[in-house]
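So, could you explain the following?
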Amino acid sequence: MATIKLKGIGINQFGGVQTQGNVTTFRATLATDATGAAKDSTSTAAIASGDKLILQSLPKGMLLEDAQVIVSVAMSALVTGALGFEYADGVDSAVVPQDAAYFGTGLVLNATARLRCATAKAPVVLEKTANLILTTAGAPNAKVSQLDFIVHGERL
């Protein structure tokens, strides 16, 4: 099981404190090449079952409200995943524990779809800077694919 970090993390954000509110959207795109490897990442190996992909940085104090995964070009057959967060410093919090499946598990990444947050977990405020992570399961990816991840929340 490898950890693969996408490059350019932290640049796809919209929103901020305004008179209309502080709603924020963070986005990340996972595109793979013909071998199944994540483009523009720290690895050239194909994404394997059990790999953790660091997709985006989420700021301390963000209230996590919702997420979507848009699978516009599907991954290989049987590939599924879990979407969640872990703290960037690697140290868990007793108040708001990191959760690798906060937004959902068993997400079908091998068929085109728009997937909404698949859990009934209460919104949480991040205790510190966290990473949005995708943990793959089911099978390795061996083809071109594209997945877009959208996380909505509020900056508090």
In short: DSSP finds no helices and eleven strands in the chain. The radius of gyration is 15 Å. Residues 3-155 form a domain with the Jelly Rolls fold (CATH 2.60.120). The chain has one domain: 3-155.
